[in-house]
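Lab meeting, item 3. Inverse folding demo.
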């Protein structure tokens, strides 16, 4: 397409948006309201997904070495653990390190265990991380079957329930997001369709005087793009304002519960780009889909 023709289409699109002010306002408003709902829901779901991922990454398998195992046998156990499928890392923790870590985690109450330094009852241990947290149970069972292992702990029972709840939450979230997006597309496309239907005679006249389908489509393509982008402005501003309040005012409360939110800059940038892209795509799709049937003359 020649630059001159493109400028003509852009100018015509802008003029049409002005001439059909109320219909343009209705279409932009439909985009804005729908994207506000989508944006707020995505904000919650992205953070829930991050929290679920953080919880999964904290799950580990602790393999306790038998007290009777020699140093050579302990090293052999470490080698055997590395051979288990889905094991990402194996970290050795001596009984001394285990006691120090326990005392450190207890804070003011660590004096209770200070007398145990000379007679440390804790066993040596290996700490395993898995490639996929969902494989924790499999890895724990495999580790339990190895020689020189006295016990394996990973939160049996609790971990399985946790993963089950996380999977349900993610699946429900995906279904709700898809449903909300389809509802938004239906609402926005039908609002834009009313705008196009009101101008069907304009399209018919253009076709009768010899305009090609692409020549007719381009102004509506640009109009849909502009309406979609304009409709995403308010949702983007809402994302910045709402997430600023949540992150900087409620983030400290969440950190006290060992929950961290997605960083403000990352969330607002990525979600804003996503909302603008969704708004533009829906606007263009709604315009082109609505004008298509009037091109068959």
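The presenter then showed the designed sequence:
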């Amino acid at each position: 397409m020649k630059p001159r023709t493109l400028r003509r289409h852009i100018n015509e699109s802008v003029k049409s948006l002005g001439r059909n002010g109320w219909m343009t306002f209705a279409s932009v408003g439909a985009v804005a309201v729908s994207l506000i709902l989508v944006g707020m829901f995505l904000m919650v779901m992205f953070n829930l997904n991050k929290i679920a991922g953080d919880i999964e990454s904290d799950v580990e398998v602790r393999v306790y070495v038998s007290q009777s195992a020699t140093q050579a046998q302990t090293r052999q156990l470490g080698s055997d653990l590395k051979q288990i499928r889905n094991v990402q890392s194996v970290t050795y923790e001596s009984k001394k390190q285990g006691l120090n870590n326990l005392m450190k985690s207890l804070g003011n109450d660590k004096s209770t265990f200070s007398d145990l330094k000379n007679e440390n009852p804790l066993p040596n241990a290996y700490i395993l991380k898995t490639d996929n947290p969902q494989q924790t149970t499999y890895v724990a069972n495999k580790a339990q079957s190895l020689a020189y292992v006295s016990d394996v702990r990973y939160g049996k029972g609790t971990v399985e329930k946790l993963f089950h709840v996380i999977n349900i939450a993610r699946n429900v979230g995906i279904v709700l997001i898809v449903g909300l997006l389809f509802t938004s597309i239906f609402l926005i496309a039908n609002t834009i369709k009313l705008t196009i239907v009101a101008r069907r005679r304009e399209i018919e006249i253009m076709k009768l005087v010899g305009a090609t389908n692409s020549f007719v489509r381009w102004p509506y393509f640009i109009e849909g793009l502009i309406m979609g982008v304009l409709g995403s402005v308010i949702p983007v501003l809402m994302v910045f304002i709402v997430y600023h309040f949540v992150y900087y005012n409620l983030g400290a409360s969440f950190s006290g519960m060992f929950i961290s939110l997605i960083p403000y800059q990352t969330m607002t940038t990525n979600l804003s780009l996503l909302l603008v892209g969704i708004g533009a795509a829906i606007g263009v799709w709604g315009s082109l889909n609505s004008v298509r049937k009037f091109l068959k003359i």
